[in-house]
């Protein structure tokens, strides 16, 4: 019989506690939670001290959701590392060791790498929640709504659509909570992270496509039952990778009555809603630089044909 109470191993508890004082993506440390961890009582939320107060409240009011969020944290790490497996920066820093005292610099600074991770994280948590609604893993939501428009002849709405609306609401409520706290780092970093998170969610909205199943005698497909479903997370990650490669460097400067992020070299226009932005340039990730979060590519030949400078290491 499974015990109703579970105590996190000291190493996992340590990284969650330390994540409170880091400006990185706090909830990603949940990827280290053991598979045997089942949050089925409100006091279990206290085992996850890396959460800010509003996240803890969400945990207590919706225990099922926390299991989905832990799944999402694991998906972010796996998808990021697979998407960047051909790059010098390969998301290895997302796999935060349990004895880490802080997040690696490439995630803790306002770099384009941090921009991608925030965007992917926001997209992944909403994607995972939306799919959990469809699969029946979350009792507080169900299939997405049937589209209002009338389908073409030979098509009909049916099936179970991914509940993107619920996924976006609950996903943003949880993942954006740390950046909306007063003591959440510099205003520039908060604006950058919130902007990039929204870019990730917009990429998710764009990934909602019509999917159909054929019906008919002998496979004639005389009628198609269709629903709105999300593309695979890997496709969304590749779209965000393209945005990463063309990300815009920004500065934090007064615009009207308050400071905003504006493109550094072309500040005559505002930041576009669909572009990733970053505040600090990245190292080339070829040579080891612990202060900037570059582990280096020593003893390997790496040729890259993107915007990152070519180097043989």
TrEMBL record:
Any Pfam family from its record, for instance, is wnt
User: Is Cell division included in the keywords of this UniProt record?
Assistant: no
BP-aspect Gene Ontology terms: canonical Wnt signaling pathway; cell fate commitment; neuron differentiation
A single Gene Ontology CC term: extracellular space
Q: Which residues form the signal peptide?
A: 1-24
Q: Which PANTHER family match?
A: PROTEIN WNT-11, WNT RELATED
This protein is called Protein Wnt
Report the source organism.
Answer: Cottoperca gobio
């Amino acid at each position: 019989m499974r015990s109703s109470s579970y105590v996190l191993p000291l190493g996992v508890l340590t990284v969650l506690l330390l994540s409170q004082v880091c400006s990185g993506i706090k909830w990603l440390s949940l990827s280290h939670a053991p598979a045997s961890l089942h949050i089925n009582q409100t006091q279990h939320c206290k085992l996850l001290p890396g959460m800010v107060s509003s996240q803890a409240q969400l945990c207590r009011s919706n225990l099922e959701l926390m299991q989905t969020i832990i799944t999402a944290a694991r998906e972010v790490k796996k998808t990021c590392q697979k998407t960047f497996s051909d790059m010098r920066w390969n998301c290895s820093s997302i796999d935060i060791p349990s004895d880490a005292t802080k997040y690696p610099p490439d995630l803790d600074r306002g770099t384009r790498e941090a921009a991608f991770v925030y965007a992917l994280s926001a997209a992944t948590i909403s994607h995972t929640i939306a799919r959990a609604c469809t699969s029946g893993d979350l009792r507080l939501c169900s299939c997405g709504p049937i589209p209002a428009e009338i389908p073409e002849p030979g098509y009909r709405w049916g099936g179970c659509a991914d509940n993107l609306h619920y996924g976006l609401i609950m996903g943003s409520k949880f993942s954006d909570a740390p950046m909306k706290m007063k003591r959440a780092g510099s205003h520039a970093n908060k604006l950058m992270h919130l902007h990039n998170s929204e870019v990730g969610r917009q990429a998710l909205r764009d990934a909602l496509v019509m999917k159909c199943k054929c019906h008919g005698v002998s496979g004639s497909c005389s009628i198609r039952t269709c629903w709105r479903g999300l593309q695979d997370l890997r496709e969304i990650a590749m779209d965000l990778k393209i945005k990463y490669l063309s990300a815009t460097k920004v500065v934090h400067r007064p615009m009207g009555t308050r400071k905003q992020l504006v493109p550094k070299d072309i500040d005559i226009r505002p930041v576009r809603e669909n572009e990733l932005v970053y505040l600090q340039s990245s190292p080339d990730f070829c040579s080891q630089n612990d202060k900037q979060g570059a582990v280096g590519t020593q003893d390997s030949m790496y040729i890259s044909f993107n915007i990152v400078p070519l180097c043989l290491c």
